[in-house]
Amino acid sequence: MKHIQVVAAVIVKNDHVLIARRPLDKHKGGYWEFPGGKIETGESHEEALVREIAEEINIRIEAPQLFERIDFDYPEKSVSLNFFLTEAFSGEPEGLEGQAIKWVAWPELANYQFPEANQPVVKKLQNWFSEKS
């Protein structure tokens, strides 16, 4: 089975989280996700994260902290997902690959369809916001 290493950014601004819609022609197309992508050979998790976020949504993230790590097996592939949380970034997010992006108030995250592998992160993030409030 194909195994993929992925990094994703949980970008927080006040009580909102930035999410992006997966392209329809990709695995889990049309679902919402935290922006990120595959780690390239020789990259650290942080290097891949900074590169992917710059390429996908045109911002520079700062001080990302590991938030959650999940290994998940889909029928067609297995993924290791490394989610990093940051509240510090520069620039204004825009979908450089044609994807929809939006800031969502954290209580509304449950109204969006995320891939199965992202569900534990959504729940953990909601708990994180609840404890922070």
UniProtKB/TrEMBL annotation:
Q: Does the keyword Metal-binding apply?
A: yes
Q: Which reaction does it catalyse?
A: 8-oxo-dGTP + H2O = 8-oxo-dGMP + diphosphate + H(+); 8-oxo-GTP + H2O = 8-oxo-GMP + diphosphate + H(+)
Name one molecular function that GO assigns to this entry.
8-oxo-dGDP phosphatase activity
Encoding gene per record: mutT
Q: What residues does the Nudix hydrolase domain cover? A: 1-127
The residues that the entry says bind 8-oxo-dGTP are R22, H27, E33, F34, P35, G36, N118
An individual GO BP term: DNA replication
Keyword set includes Metal-binding: yes
What is this protein's record name? 8-oxo-dGTP diphosphatase
A Pfam entry, by short name: NUDIX
Q: Which domain of life is it from?
A: Bacteria
Family statement: Belongs to the Nudix hydrolase family.
Q: What is its EC number?
A: 3.6.1.55
